Amino acid sequence: MSLLSDIMEVSKGTMTTMLNKLVEEEYVKRTSSFMDRRSIYVSLTNKGEKKVDEIYQKLLESMTKVIERQDKKEQEMLCDGITTLNNLFQLKNRE
C-alpha cells in the first residue's frame, strides 16, 4: 500500500479507500505475498482490464477529434508539447 500511495501521492488511508471501492466493484483484486504477509499485490481483474481498454479508446477518440480540428502548425506545437511532457515524466520516473 505504501508504494501505491507514494506513486499516487496520496495518503495510505486515501489509497486504501480507493482500492476498497475498486475491489468492491471488481475492477482489481488484492493478493497477499507468500514471502511477506504484510505485503499486498494489487492487480486488474478481467473486468478492470476491459474498463481500462474502454477508457483508453474513449481518450484516443477524444484526442483524435481535438487534433483533427487543429491546423498543421497547431498540430506540430501540440506534438512538441506532448514530447516535452513525456520527457519530463521519464525524468520524474528515474528519481
From TrEMBL:
Name of this chain's protein: HTH-type transcriptional regulator SarZ
Organism: Alkaliphilus peptidifermentans DSM 18978
Keywords: DNA-binding, Transcription, Transcription regulation
GO CC, one annotated term: cytoplasm
Pfam families per UniProt: Staph_reg_Sar_Rot
Signal peptide: none
Stated family: Belongs to the SarZ family.
HTH marR-type domain mapped to chain residues: 1-87
GO terms of molecular function: DNA binding; DNA-binding transcription factor activity
Residue runs in coiled coils: none
Compartmental location: Cytoplasm
Predominant location category: cytoplasm
